[in-house]
Specification:
The protein is mainly alpha-helical. It has helices spanning 13-39, 41-48, 52-59, 61-78, 83-101, 107-121, 125-135, 138-169, 172-180, 182-193, 215-224, 226-257, 261-291, 297-318, 322-328, 330-335, 340-349, 356-390, 394-402, 406-416, 420-428.
Protein backbone atom coordinates (compact mmCIF):
# COMPACT_ATOMS: atom_id res chain seq x y z
CA UNK A 1 0.00 0.00 0.00
CA UNK A 2 1.32 3.43 -0.92
CA UNK A 3 2.32 5.48 2.10
CA UNK A 4 0.86 8.96 2.62
CA UNK A 5 3.31 11.72 1.82
CA UNK A 6 3.62 14.28 4.57
CA UNK A 7 3.65 17.80 3.18
CA UNK A 8 6.86 19.64 3.97
CA UNK A 9 6.27 22.43 6.47
CA UNK A 10 8.60 24.88 8.15
CA UNK A 11 8.57 24.43 11.92
CA UNK A 12 9.66 27.66 13.61
CA UNK A 13 11.12 27.78 17.11
CA UNK A 14 8.01 29.58 18.36
CA UNK A 15 5.68 27.01 16.84
CA UNK A 16 7.55 23.96 18.10
CA UNK A 17 7.47 25.45 21.60
CA UNK A 18 3.72 25.98 21.19
CA UNK A 19 3.32 22.39 19.98
CA UNK A 20 5.29 21.14 22.99
CA UNK A 21 3.01 23.19 25.26
CA UNK A 22 -0.10 21.63 23.69
CA UNK A 23 1.29 18.08 23.91
CA UNK A 24 2.25 18.71 27.54
CA UNK A 25 -1.33 19.88 28.12
CA UNK A 26 -2.52 16.60 26.60
CA UNK A 27 -0.19 14.61 28.87
CA UNK A 28 -1.38 16.63 31.86
CA UNK A 29 -5.01 15.89 31.04
CA UNK A 30 -4.28 12.18 30.71
CA UNK A 31 -2.59 12.07 34.10
CA UNK A 32 -5.32 14.04 35.83
CA UNK A 33 -7.86 11.51 34.57
CA UNK A 34 -5.52 8.59 35.28
CA UNK A 35 -4.36 9.62 38.77
CA UNK A 36 -7.55 11.16 40.15
CA UNK A 37 -8.54 7.70 41.34
CA UNK A 38 -5.55 7.72 43.74
CA UNK A 39 -6.80 10.63 45.83
CA UNK A 40 -10.33 9.19 45.61
CA UNK A 41 -9.21 5.68 46.56
CA UNK A 42 -10.18 5.83 50.24
CA UNK A 43 -13.69 7.34 49.79
CA UNK A 44 -14.39 4.94 46.88
CA UNK A 45 -13.20 2.02 49.02
CA UNK A 46 -15.46 3.12 51.88
CA UNK A 47 -18.45 3.67 49.59
CA UNK A 48 -18.14 0.42 47.65
CA UNK A 49 -16.85 -1.71 50.54
CA UNK A 50 -13.80 -2.99 48.66
CA UNK A 51 -10.59 -4.50 50.05
CA UNK A 52 -7.08 -3.09 49.45
CA UNK A 53 -6.43 -5.90 46.98
CA UNK A 54 -9.57 -5.00 45.02
CA UNK A 55 -8.65 -1.32 45.03
CA UNK A 56 -5.15 -2.18 43.85
CA UNK A 57 -6.78 -4.03 40.95
CA UNK A 58 -9.03 -1.03 40.21
CA UNK A 59 -6.25 1.57 40.12
CA UNK A 60 -3.77 -0.77 38.42
CA UNK A 61 -4.64 -3.70 36.18
CA UNK A 62 -8.10 -2.55 35.04
CA UNK A 63 -6.45 0.47 33.45
CA UNK A 64 -3.01 -0.86 32.58
CA UNK A 65 -3.88 -4.03 30.63
CA UNK A 66 -5.89 -2.22 27.96
CA UNK A 67 -3.73 0.92 28.03
CA UNK A 68 -0.54 -1.04 27.50
CA UNK A 69 -1.84 -3.62 25.02
CA UNK A 70 -3.75 -1.28 22.71
CA UNK A 71 -0.88 1.19 22.65
CA UNK A 72 1.09 -1.01 20.24
CA UNK A 73 -1.43 -1.37 17.38
CA UNK A 74 -2.29 2.33 17.71
CA UNK A 75 1.42 3.17 17.55
CA UNK A 76 1.77 1.15 14.35
CA UNK A 77 -1.07 3.20 12.93
CA UNK A 78 0.71 6.37 14.11
CA UNK A 79 3.89 5.38 12.26
CA UNK A 80 1.78 5.15 9.11
CA UNK A 81 -0.89 7.82 9.48
CA UNK A 82 -1.66 11.21 11.00
CA UNK A 83 -0.41 11.34 14.58
CA UNK A 84 -2.24 14.56 15.42
CA UNK A 85 -5.67 13.10 14.57
CA UNK A 86 -4.99 9.93 16.53
CA UNK A 87 -4.17 11.99 19.63
CA UNK A 88 -7.33 14.10 19.25
CA UNK A 89 -9.55 10.99 19.04
CA UNK A 90 -7.78 9.42 22.02
CA UNK A 91 -8.36 12.48 24.23
CA UNK A 92 -12.06 12.48 23.36
CA UNK A 93 -12.43 8.82 24.38
CA UNK A 94 -10.61 8.99 27.71
CA UNK A 95 -12.33 12.24 28.73
CA UNK A 96 -15.78 10.81 28.01
CA UNK A 97 -14.98 7.63 29.94
CA UNK A 98 -13.66 9.62 32.92
CA UNK A 99 -17.00 11.42 33.07
CA UNK A 100 -18.71 8.00 32.90
CA UNK A 101 -16.75 6.91 36.02
CA UNK A 102 -18.87 9.32 38.03
CA UNK A 103 -22.04 7.42 37.10
CA UNK A 104 -20.75 4.03 38.32
CA UNK A 105 -22.81 2.51 41.15
CA UNK A 106 -20.77 -0.67 41.74
CA UNK A 107 -17.18 -1.84 41.79
CA UNK A 108 -17.76 -3.75 38.54
CA UNK A 109 -19.16 -0.70 36.73
CA UNK A 110 -16.30 1.48 37.92
CA UNK A 111 -13.80 -1.13 36.74
CA UNK A 112 -15.41 -1.11 33.28
CA UNK A 113 -15.26 2.66 32.97
CA UNK A 114 -11.62 2.68 34.08
CA UNK A 115 -10.93 0.18 31.31
CA UNK A 116 -12.49 2.73 28.95
CA UNK A 117 -10.13 5.42 30.22
CA UNK A 118 -7.20 3.09 29.58
CA UNK A 119 -8.39 2.38 26.03
CA UNK A 120 -8.52 6.11 25.28
CA UNK A 121 -5.15 6.92 26.81
CA UNK A 122 -3.50 4.14 24.79
CA UNK A 123 -3.64 6.40 21.74
CA UNK A 124 -1.83 9.42 23.16
CA UNK A 125 1.74 8.80 24.30
CA UNK A 126 3.46 6.94 21.41
CA UNK A 127 2.38 9.48 18.73
CA UNK A 128 3.23 12.34 21.11
CA UNK A 129 6.78 11.02 21.56
CA UNK A 130 7.13 10.68 17.82
CA UNK A 131 5.89 14.22 17.19
CA UNK A 132 8.25 15.73 19.76
CA UNK A 133 11.18 13.89 18.19
CA UNK A 134 10.25 15.43 14.83
CA UNK A 135 9.93 18.90 16.35
CA UNK A 136 13.20 18.92 18.36
CA UNK A 137 16.77 17.88 17.40
CA UNK A 138 18.61 15.30 19.48
CA UNK A 139 20.66 17.87 21.43
CA UNK A 140 17.43 19.44 22.76
CA UNK A 141 15.37 16.28 23.02
CA UNK A 142 15.91 15.38 26.70
CA UNK A 143 14.83 18.87 27.73
CA UNK A 144 11.79 18.73 25.44
CA UNK A 145 10.86 15.28 26.73
CA UNK A 146 11.34 16.48 30.31
CA UNK A 147 9.00 19.43 29.69
CA UNK A 148 6.50 16.95 28.25
CA UNK A 149 7.05 14.64 31.24
CA UNK A 150 6.18 17.47 33.66
CA UNK A 151 2.63 16.73 32.52
CA UNK A 152 2.79 13.82 34.98
CA UNK A 153 3.46 16.18 37.86
CA UNK A 154 0.98 18.81 36.69
CA UNK A 155 -1.61 16.08 36.38
CA UNK A 156 -0.87 14.95 39.93
CA UNK A 157 -1.02 18.57 41.13
CA UNK A 158 -4.51 19.12 39.73
CA UNK A 159 -5.70 15.62 40.65
CA UNK A 160 -4.52 15.90 44.25
CA UNK A 161 -5.69 19.45 44.95
CA UNK A 162 -8.94 19.28 43.03
CA UNK A 163 -9.69 15.66 43.80
CA UNK A 164 -8.92 16.02 47.50
CA UNK A 165 -11.12 19.07 47.93
CA UNK A 166 -13.97 17.79 45.75
CA UNK A 167 -14.04 14.33 47.31
CA UNK A 168 -14.41 15.89 50.78
CA UNK A 169 -16.89 18.63 49.90
CA UNK A 170 -18.70 17.48 46.73
CA UNK A 171 -18.14 13.73 46.61
CA UNK A 172 -15.93 11.47 44.50
CA UNK A 173 -18.45 11.25 41.65
CA UNK A 174 -18.38 15.00 41.06
CA UNK A 175 -14.58 14.89 40.92
CA UNK A 176 -14.76 12.56 37.90
CA UNK A 177 -17.21 14.87 36.14
CA UNK A 178 -15.08 17.96 36.65
CA UNK A 179 -11.71 16.52 35.58
CA UNK A 180 -13.09 14.73 32.52
CA UNK A 181 -14.76 17.70 30.83
CA UNK A 182 -11.67 19.85 29.94
CA UNK A 183 -10.22 17.06 27.82
CA UNK A 184 -12.97 17.52 25.23
CA UNK A 185 -11.77 21.10 24.63
CA UNK A 186 -8.10 20.01 24.49
CA UNK A 187 -9.03 17.49 21.78
CA UNK A 188 -10.31 20.33 19.59
CA UNK A 189 -7.12 22.36 20.19
CA UNK A 190 -4.98 19.42 19.08
CA UNK A 191 -7.05 18.68 16.00
CA UNK A 192 -7.20 22.23 14.68
CA UNK A 193 -3.89 23.83 15.75
CA UNK A 194 -1.16 21.16 15.63
CA UNK A 195 0.89 20.58 12.47
CA UNK A 196 1.79 17.05 11.41
CA UNK A 197 5.53 17.35 10.65
CA UNK A 198 7.45 15.22 8.16
CA UNK A 199 9.05 12.09 9.61
CA UNK A 200 12.57 12.84 10.71
CA UNK A 201 12.06 16.61 10.33
CA UNK A 202 14.50 17.32 13.17
CA UNK A 203 17.16 14.94 11.82
CA UNK A 204 19.79 15.49 9.14
CA UNK A 205 17.58 13.84 6.53
CA UNK A 206 13.78 13.82 6.22
CA UNK A 207 12.05 10.52 5.48
CA UNK A 208 8.71 10.87 3.71
CA UNK A 209 8.04 7.70 1.76
CA UNK A 210 9.96 5.03 3.66
CA UNK A 211 7.74 2.04 4.44
CA UNK A 212 7.37 1.63 8.22
CA UNK A 213 8.87 -1.63 9.50
CA UNK A 214 6.73 -4.40 10.99
CA UNK A 215 6.10 -4.72 14.70
CA UNK A 216 8.44 -7.69 14.96
CA UNK A 217 11.19 -5.78 13.14
CA UNK A 218 10.91 -2.99 15.71
CA UNK A 219 10.89 -5.47 18.61
CA UNK A 220 13.95 -7.29 17.25
CA UNK A 221 15.78 -4.00 16.79
CA UNK A 222 15.05 -2.94 20.36
CA UNK A 223 16.13 -6.30 21.77
CA UNK A 224 19.35 -6.24 19.74
CA UNK A 225 20.25 -2.80 21.14
CA UNK A 226 21.85 -3.63 24.50
CA UNK A 227 21.60 -0.17 26.04
CA UNK A 228 17.94 0.04 25.02
CA UNK A 229 17.16 -3.22 26.80
CA UNK A 230 18.50 -1.79 30.05
CA UNK A 231 16.75 1.57 29.60
CA UNK A 232 13.39 -0.16 29.13
CA UNK A 233 14.02 -2.50 32.08
CA UNK A 234 15.08 0.39 34.31
CA UNK A 235 12.10 2.50 33.29
CA UNK A 236 9.69 -0.39 33.93
CA UNK A 237 11.03 -0.88 37.45
CA UNK A 238 11.05 2.85 38.18
CA UNK A 239 7.43 3.08 36.99
CA UNK A 240 6.63 0.00 39.11
CA UNK A 241 7.71 1.93 42.20
CA UNK A 242 6.40 5.30 41.01
CA UNK A 243 2.83 4.25 40.28
CA UNK A 244 2.60 2.19 43.44
CA UNK A 245 3.71 5.17 45.52
CA UNK A 246 1.61 7.80 43.77
CA UNK A 247 -1.62 5.81 43.92
CA UNK A 248 -1.27 4.63 47.54
CA UNK A 249 0.34 7.59 49.30
CA UNK A 250 -3.02 9.39 49.69
CA UNK A 251 -4.46 6.41 51.59
CA UNK A 252 -1.21 6.13 53.60
CA UNK A 253 -1.38 9.74 54.83
CA UNK A 254 -5.05 9.31 55.74
CA UNK A 255 -4.51 6.08 57.68
CA UNK A 256 -1.09 6.61 59.27
CA UNK A 257 -1.07 10.40 59.77
CA UNK A 258 -4.76 11.14 60.13
CA UNK A 259 -4.92 13.79 57.39
CA UNK A 260 -8.21 14.76 55.79
CA UNK A 261 -8.78 14.33 52.06
CA UNK A 262 -8.19 18.04 51.48
CA UNK A 263 -5.00 18.03 53.58
CA UNK A 264 -3.71 14.98 51.70
CA UNK A 265 -4.50 16.66 48.39
CA UNK A 266 -2.49 19.78 49.21
CA UNK A 267 0.37 17.77 50.76
CA UNK A 268 0.86 15.53 47.75
CA UNK A 269 0.23 18.36 45.30
CA UNK A 270 3.18 20.12 46.94
CA UNK A 271 5.38 16.99 46.95
CA UNK A 272 4.62 15.52 43.53
CA UNK A 273 3.04 18.43 41.68
CA UNK A 274 5.51 21.19 42.58
CA UNK A 275 8.67 19.55 43.97
CA UNK A 276 8.35 16.56 41.65
CA UNK A 277 7.60 18.76 38.64
CA UNK A 278 10.70 20.85 39.23
CA UNK A 279 12.77 17.68 39.54
CA UNK A 280 11.35 16.15 36.35
CA UNK A 281 12.14 19.31 34.38
CA UNK A 282 15.61 19.67 35.90
CA UNK A 283 16.50 16.08 35.02
CA UNK A 284 16.09 16.83 31.32
CA UNK A 285 17.98 20.11 31.42
CA UNK A 286 20.84 18.59 33.43
CA UNK A 287 20.94 15.53 31.15
CA UNK A 288 21.18 17.66 27.98
CA UNK A 289 23.88 19.91 29.39
CA UNK A 290 25.98 17.11 30.87
CA UNK A 291 25.53 14.95 27.77
CA UNK A 292 27.20 17.65 25.69
CA UNK A 293 30.42 16.61 27.48
CA UNK A 294 29.75 12.89 27.69
CA UNK A 295 26.61 11.22 26.29
CA UNK A 296 26.57 8.76 29.17
CA UNK A 297 25.47 11.50 31.57
CA UNK A 298 21.98 11.31 30.08
CA UNK A 299 21.50 8.02 31.94
CA UNK A 300 23.84 8.66 34.88
CA UNK A 301 21.48 11.48 35.89
CA UNK A 302 18.67 8.93 36.10
CA UNK A 303 20.69 6.33 38.01
CA UNK A 304 21.83 8.86 40.62
CA UNK A 305 18.34 10.30 41.05
CA UNK A 306 16.68 6.91 41.58
CA UNK A 307 19.34 5.91 44.12
CA UNK A 308 18.78 9.07 46.18
CA UNK A 309 15.09 8.23 46.50
CA UNK A 310 15.54 5.10 48.61
CA UNK A 311 17.19 6.10 51.93
CA UNK A 312 15.15 9.27 52.42
CA UNK A 313 11.86 7.61 51.46
CA UNK A 314 12.49 4.77 53.92
CA UNK A 315 13.31 7.34 56.61
CA UNK A 316 10.08 9.17 55.81
CA UNK A 317 8.02 6.01 56.33
CA UNK A 318 9.79 5.24 59.61
CA UNK A 319 8.97 8.51 61.38
CA UNK A 320 5.68 9.16 63.15
CA UNK A 321 5.73 12.98 63.02
CA UNK A 322 3.76 14.17 60.00
CA UNK A 323 5.75 17.33 59.20
CA UNK A 324 9.04 15.43 59.43
CA UNK A 325 7.73 12.64 57.18
CA UNK A 326 6.75 15.24 54.58
CA UNK A 327 10.08 17.06 54.84
CA UNK A 328 12.06 13.84 54.42
CA UNK A 329 10.00 12.94 51.35
CA UNK A 330 10.88 16.16 49.47
CA UNK A 331 14.08 14.75 47.90
CA UNK A 332 12.42 11.44 46.88
CA UNK A 333 9.60 13.47 45.30
CA UNK A 334 12.14 15.68 43.48
CA UNK A 335 13.99 12.66 42.07
CA UNK A 336 10.97 10.42 41.42
CA UNK A 337 10.52 11.54 37.80
CA UNK A 338 14.19 11.66 36.82
CA UNK A 339 13.81 8.57 34.63
CA UNK A 340 11.02 9.97 32.43
CA UNK A 341 12.50 12.72 30.22
CA UNK A 342 16.02 11.34 29.69
CA UNK A 343 14.62 7.82 29.33
CA UNK A 344 12.06 8.81 26.69
CA UNK A 345 14.75 10.77 24.86
CA UNK A 346 17.19 7.86 24.89
CA UNK A 347 14.63 5.49 23.40
CA UNK A 348 13.71 7.89 20.60
CA UNK A 349 17.40 8.50 19.80
CA UNK A 350 18.35 4.82 19.80
CA UNK A 351 15.88 3.71 17.12
CA UNK A 352 15.42 4.65 13.43
CA UNK A 353 12.94 7.43 12.62
CA UNK A 354 10.21 5.12 11.29
CA UNK A 355 10.33 2.99 14.44
CA UNK A 356 9.73 5.77 16.93
CA UNK A 357 6.01 5.42 17.67
CA UNK A 358 6.11 1.63 17.93
CA UNK A 359 9.29 1.62 20.03
CA UNK A 360 7.67 4.14 22.37
CA UNK A 361 4.58 1.92 22.54
CA UNK A 362 6.63 -1.19 23.35
CA UNK A 363 8.38 0.73 26.11
CA UNK A 364 5.07 2.07 27.43
CA UNK A 365 3.53 -1.41 27.22
CA UNK A 366 6.18 -2.78 29.57
CA UNK A 367 6.39 0.23 31.89
CA UNK A 368 2.63 0.44 32.27
CA UNK A 369 1.89 -3.27 32.48
CA UNK A 370 4.65 -3.75 35.06
CA UNK A 371 4.45 -0.31 36.65
CA UNK A 372 0.81 0.74 36.56
CA UNK A 373 -0.63 -2.76 36.30
CA UNK A 374 1.38 -4.71 38.87
CA UNK A 375 2.84 -1.94 41.05
CA UNK A 376 -0.32 -0.67 42.77
CA UNK A 377 -1.68 -4.22 42.90
CA UNK A 378 1.40 -5.48 44.78
CA UNK A 379 1.24 -2.60 47.27
CA UNK A 380 -2.36 -3.56 48.04
CA UNK A 381 -1.51 -7.26 48.35
CA UNK A 382 1.43 -6.53 50.68
CA UNK A 383 -0.73 -4.20 52.75
CA UNK A 384 -3.38 -6.90 53.22
CA UNK A 385 -0.60 -9.41 54.06
CA UNK A 386 0.87 -7.14 56.75
CA UNK A 387 -2.54 -6.27 58.20
CA UNK A 388 -2.53 -9.19 60.65
CA UNK A 389 0.68 -7.97 62.30
CA UNK A 390 0.48 -4.19 61.79
CA UNK A 391 -3.23 -3.43 61.53
CA UNK A 392 -3.90 0.09 60.24
CA UNK A 393 -0.14 0.64 59.74
CA UNK A 394 0.20 -2.19 57.21
CA UNK A 395 0.36 0.23 54.27
CA UNK A 396 3.34 2.03 55.83
CA UNK A 397 5.45 -1.14 55.79
CA UNK A 398 4.22 -2.18 52.35
CA UNK A 399 5.42 1.13 50.85
CA UNK A 400 8.69 1.02 52.79
CA UNK A 401 9.65 -2.31 51.21
CA UNK A 402 8.34 -1.28 47.83
CA UNK A 403 10.47 1.85 47.38
CA UNK A 404 13.73 -0.14 47.67
CA UNK A 405 13.13 -1.58 44.19
CA UNK A 406 14.43 1.76 42.85
CA UNK A 407 17.96 0.47 43.48
CA UNK A 408 17.36 -2.32 40.98
CA UNK A 409 16.08 0.25 38.46
CA UNK A 410 19.16 2.44 38.96
CA UNK A 411 21.42 -0.54 38.27
CA UNK A 412 19.89 -1.02 34.81
CA UNK A 413 20.56 2.60 33.84
CA UNK A 414 24.16 2.22 34.98
CA UNK A 415 24.53 -0.96 32.91
CA UNK A 416 23.02 0.77 29.86
CA UNK A 417 25.91 3.22 29.88
CA UNK A 418 28.31 0.41 28.99
CA UNK A 419 26.83 0.34 25.47
CA UNK A 420 25.18 3.74 24.93
CA UNK A 421 27.97 5.33 22.86
CA UNK A 422 28.26 2.58 20.26
CA UNK A 423 24.47 2.09 20.12
CA UNK A 424 23.83 5.79 19.45
CA UNK A 425 26.48 5.80 16.72
CA UNK A 426 24.84 2.76 15.12
CA UNK A 427 21.36 4.34 15.29
CA UNK A 428 22.58 7.36 13.33
CA UNK A 429 23.55 5.15 10.39
CA UNK A 430 20.15 3.43 10.06
Amino acid sequence: MQQPVEAPVIITKRYRNYALFVLTLVFTSSHVDRQIVGILLQPIKNDLGASDTQMGFLVGLTFAIFYATLGMPIAMLADRGNRRNIIAIAITIWSAMTIACGFATSFFQLALTRIGVGIGEAGSNPPSHSLISDYFPIEQRSTAMAVFAVGVNLGLLFAYIGGGWMSQHLGWRTAFFVVGAPGLLIALIVRFTLIEPARGAAEKTVQTNTTPPSFMAVARNMWATKSLRHVVAGGSLAAFVGYGMVLWLPAYFVRSHGLSQTEVGFTLAFLYGIIGGIGTFCSGVIADRMSARDVRWNLWVVAIGLTLVVPLAVASFLVETTWLAIALFCIPAFCSGFYIGPGFSAIQSLVPVRMRSVSAAINLFLTNLIGLGIGPQLVGVLSDYFKTDYGNESLRYSLMIFVCINLWAALHYALANRYIREDLALAETR
